Amino acid sequence: MKCKKYEEKIILHLYGELDEKEKAELENHINECPECSRDFAYTKKVFKALDKSKQEIPEANWEKCWEEINAGAHKTPSLQKSSFFFPSWAYAAAALLLVFVLGAIIGRFLFFPGQQVQDEQGLSPSSIQFTLQEYFEELKPVLVEFANFTSSDKGEETILMDREIARNLLIQNILLKSIVAKTDPTLAQLLDDVDIVLKEISNLKKEDKQTPSFIKELIQEREILFKMEILQKI
Amino acid sequence: MNNMKEEAVIKQAQEGNREAMRLLFEENKKRIFSMAYHYTKNAEDAEDILQETFIKAYRSLHRFNVQDGNSFSPWLCRIGINCSIDYLRRNRTRKEKDMIVNNIENLTSYDKYSNPENTSVQREIREKIDQTLNKLSGQQRIIFILKHYQQLTTGEIAEYLDCSEGSVKRQLFRAVSTMKIHLKGLILENKYEMQKI
After folding, report:
1. What residue spans of B41-115 are helical by DSSP H?
2. Cβ B86–A151 below 8 Å, yes or no?
3. Looking at the whole model, is its pTM more than 0.80?
4. Which of 3.40.50.1970, 3.90.1310.10, 1.10.1660.10, 1.10.1740.10 would CATH assign to domain B1-90?
5. Where exactly are the structural domains of chain B?
6. Which of A68, A182, B67, B81 has its CA at a distance of 20 to 30 angstroms from the CA of residue A93?
7. How many CB atoms lie within 10 A of CB A176?
8. What stretches of A18-166 adopt beta strand conformation (E)?
9. What are phi and psi for residue A59, nearest 5 degrees?
């Protein structure tokens, strides 16, 4: 049986990683131990075979690579934000939702004039909180899915579904943001971050391999799920 | 690029200067590409990894602290290593098929003037090495590539991977031991004349 300690040292020696003292100790041992001596001879052969198998590195298309990098590196969330567009049905849905929200606010004034309304937009903090809780409940599974993204390819159907869900959530996000913008800057900031994430998901394409990881990083870096958790507990 | 110059270039790149970004690309492209090529054995995949590495690096360049005396290359290499591991994990099945095709293509690409018996054994060994590389864990594989093909020291690899030198040595030992086991039949059966290689 080979001596375990020297088995490792033989490899390090062949890689030139031993100092003079260790080298001398190993050489002495190899001279005395026939098993390690055989292992040393065999390891040297393996190293030669490995060296022989080294392949020449081909030349990459550097210019094409640089163009791709240049385009990709400058595709930041803020830039994407400006290039983002909604499909026409989304504007119609947003308008409809806005009519409902305004209807609910006006209705409260008309039918419950005595009820205390604390918010300047006509919504009490408790009703905002309730709407927010419901919104977070819908949003959370989508964010968790991307936060746990593990590099495996997403299927076409999953991407289409994610995109549709994200677009619906995006409309709610815009409305909520407009409601809390002046009263709660912390929440508005969180909704801003969510906005970027949802826009990325809304524009996701199957062939785009980098965006899911980028979304994952965004969720983690901006601690979106953690902040949502805290807000839900308040 | 000396340290002072590198620091200035990174600062300019952090401000979005494309010339500076290009300079960092030129300085590091070959190292990252070569590592990715050894990792994937495919030039197109290696180009993809190279691009992914630099895109990720530039997107998070604002978090790189030049003042602390950090060197750009190990930081970039760390990103490259993660990209390589991720890339292979994503494309493992396809890669395995490619490897078979590459091995078949290699059958015709050997030097026709060399000893046919010898080239056949060399080919077998090369195939075995590729197969064994595929069997190593992601970290063992990258350590083996950085040591054997990139000729970095274990200290440098530890810095690149942000782990201890002892851990690098242990993983390297395991990787080479696996190679030794898988090549044993080919080398010890006297099929392979070491003097001729």
Report:
1. 43-59, 72-90, 92-106
2. yes
3. no
4. 1.10.1740.10
5. 1-90, 92-197
6. A182
7. 20
8. none
9. -85, 130
Q: Do A151 and B21 touch (CB under 8 A)?
A: no
What tens digit of pLDDT does each residue of A149-208 get?
A: 776 666 777 788 888 888 888 888 888 888 887 777 788 888 888 988 888 888 887 777
Sign of CA dihedral A203, A204, A206, A211: positive
Residue/partner pairs of B165-168 with CB below 8 Å, 24 or more apart:
B168/B143
Q: What amino acid occupies position B120?
A: S
- Annotation: CATH topology of B92-197: Arc Repressor Mutant, subunit A (1.10.10)
d(CA B80, CA B93): 21
- For an interface test with B, which of A56, A66, A213, A221 has the most B Cβ atoms less than 10 Å from its Cβ? A66
Size of interface A-B (CB pairs under 8 A): 105
Contact B73, B7 (CB under 8 A): no
Distance CA B133, CA A15 (A): 18
* CA distances in angstroms from B181 to A6, A44, B65, listed in the order given: 17, 14, 44
CB B132 within 8 A of CB B183: yes
* Nearest Cα residue in chain B from A75: B59
Task: Assess B147–A contact: CB distance below 8 Å, yes or no.
Answer: yes
The position carrying tokens 């095709």 is B101
Instruction: Express each pLDDT in A83-141 by its tens digit.
Output: 344 556 666 777 777 777 777 777 766 666 555 444 445 556 667 777 888 888 888 88
Residue A81 tokens, joined: 């934000």
Give per-residue pLDDT as tens, A86-97. Answer: 556 666 777 777
**pLDDT number for residue B113:** 38
Domain boundaries, chain A: 4-52, 74-233
**Location of structure tokens 């308040």:** A234
> Cα–Cα distances in Å, from B157 out to B72, B135, B140, B171, B174?
14, 21, 11, 11, 16
Q: How far apart are CA A169 and CA A41, in angstroms?
A: 66
| Nearest residue to B39 via CA among A189, A107, A212, A57 | A57
Site of tokens 């990720």: B56
The residue type of A223 is: E
